[in-house]
Design goal:
Layout (H helix, E strand, L loop, with lengths): L9 H21 L4 H6 L3 H12 L5 E2 H8 L3 H13 L3 E6 L2 E6 L12
Antiparallel strand pairs: 1-3, 2-3
Helix pairs in contact: 4-5
Keywords: Transcription, Transcription regulation
Protein name: FaeA/PapI family transcriptional regulator
InterPro entries: FaeA, WH-like_DNA-bd_sf, WH_DNA-bd_sf
Length: about 120
């Protein structure tokens, strides 16, 4: 007969997980970051990408330019940008064989970008 090395039930683990999430949300709100902003951006690389787009807001950046600035592959950049596009943080224009990405005007003053 096998015995479990865990001294807690799975129900307690879920409760703890939610408590950590609530603590994180409270800390973010104390820092002035709203729930909406947290839900839009949840990966550190996405924050770096958004900051890069903010710095180049007038001309926008190609996927390759973003990859070079961030030091990650173009495939990873695209993987990070597509959810941001779906959430309404960025937009893109197709120019021949590549895309030019822009930070949307209403995202220019997100508190999460002011780091």
């Amino acid at each position: 007969m096998k015995t479990s090395v865990c001294s807690y039930s799975s129900g307690e683990l879920r409760k703890g997980h939610h408590n950590h999430l609530k603590n994180l949300l409270m800390l973010a709100m104390e820092m002035g970051i709203s729930n909406v902003e947290i839900k839009k951006v949840n990966i550190p690389e996405q924050i770096f990408i958004l900051n890069s787009l903010k710095e180049h807001s007038s001309e926008g950046l190609s996927t390759r330019e973003i990859a070079d600035l961030c030091g990650i592959s173009i495939y990873k950049v695209r993987h990070l940008l597509l959810p941001l596009e779906q959430r309404g943080c960025v937009s893109r224009d197709k120019i021949k064989k590549y895309h030019k990405w822009y930070l949307l005007k209403d995202q220019q003053d997100l508190k999460i970008l002011q780091r």
